[in-house]
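Tokens as discussed.
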């Protein structure tokens, strides 16, 4: 079967950084399903895994953690899906990614594809939706049905990006006042179109901008970009007893004591945790993807595709990686059809 992967970890400008492959089609066992891949999306995690290092693989490394496709076969212990079902999912960072014609994935982290979307539009959603959902409703502990949310606010740093585009929509479903950050006219426009009530500039101090729009502080912060860069701003902007969640690891030390006087909660989110550690509640990703799917079909939220490339091959994936690495991506980049 066709696939795109790597043997060497190289700069994206190098033709060998991602190469076209012909590899053996896998067979599902246990609770795995084999999915015929129709569309994929790229995420920053793809570029982080691919970033240059000296390691050389003896077997090709397949990237890609956003897939929409059709179930081809199921393992003997599967109970959630049957061949022919249309699905979408992000997969596991500890296994081969989905940039291949057929892909194995544990059914417990797979959702039913939104019926109202084609495969390309659906492929944009899984990783970012899981990340946003877990950040908002599990890590930050926001109750989506709490009527008191109307009195509360959230600051989403990087609101026009992949996760930000869906997080703003989910936060609005919870009736929060959503303040996004963006710095360019096109990203400000995108953030507002996807749910942000207000947009401030993440290159400037947060508190003065918040005061200009009538907010002394915010109850929640979701940081989707460069934790250490925004740390002091977040510590100043968060309300007493507020909560901050970040998805961006830091190579620099941060002063956690800045949060002490306000008794602020800080929590990390990594959507791969459940699959990586095979947690007892792994199936929650199946359930939350189905809830996202239902919300899409009910037109309560919408897909976040900005660009679609075709076909799925090394050349187009290198283009997508280069765009992500430039750091100015709005929404999601999707590839469809092998």
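Sequence:
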């Amino acid at each position: 079967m066709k696939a795109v992967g790597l043997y060497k970890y190289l700069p994206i400008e190098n033709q060998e950084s991602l190469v076209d492959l012909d590899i053996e089609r896998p067979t599902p066992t246990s609770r795995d399903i084999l999915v015929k891949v129709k569309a994929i999306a790229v995420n920053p995690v793809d570029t982080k895994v691919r970033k240059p290092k000296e390691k050389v693989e003896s077997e090709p490394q397949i990237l890609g953690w956003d897939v929409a496709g059709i179930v081809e076969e199921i393992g003997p212990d599967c109970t959630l899906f049957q061949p022919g079902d249309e699905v979408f999912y992000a997969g596991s960072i500890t296994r081969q990614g989905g940039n291949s014609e057929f892909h194995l994935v544990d059914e417990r982290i797979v959702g039913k594809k939104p019926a109202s979307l084609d495969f390309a539009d659906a492929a944009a959603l899984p990783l970012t939706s899981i990340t946003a959902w877990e950040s908002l409703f599990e890590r930050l502990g926001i109750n989506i049905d709490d009527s008191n949310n109307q009195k509360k606010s959230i600051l989403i740093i990087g609101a026009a990006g992949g996760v930000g585009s869906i997080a703003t929509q989910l936060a609005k479903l919870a009736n929060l006042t959503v303040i996004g950050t963006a710095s360019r006219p096109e990203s400000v426009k995108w953030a507002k179109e996807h749910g942000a009530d207000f947009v401030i500039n993440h290159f400037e101090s947060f508190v003065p901008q918040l005061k200009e729009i009538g907010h002394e502080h915010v109850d929640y912060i979701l940081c989707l970009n460069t934790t250490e860069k925004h740390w002091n701003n977040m510590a100043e902007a968060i309300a007493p007893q507020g909560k901050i969640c970040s998805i961006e690891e830091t190579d620099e030390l941060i002063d956690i004591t800045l949060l002490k006087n306000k008794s602020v909660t800080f929590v990390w989110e990594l959507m791969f945790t459940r699959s990586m550690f095979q947690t007892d509640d792994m199936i929650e990703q199946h359930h939350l993807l189905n809830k996202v799917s239902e919300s899409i079909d009910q037109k309560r939220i919408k897909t976040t595709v900005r660009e679609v490339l075709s076909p799925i091959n090394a050349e187009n994936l290198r283009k997508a990686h280069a765009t992500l690495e430039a750091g100015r991506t709005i929404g999601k980049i999707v590839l469809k059809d092998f």
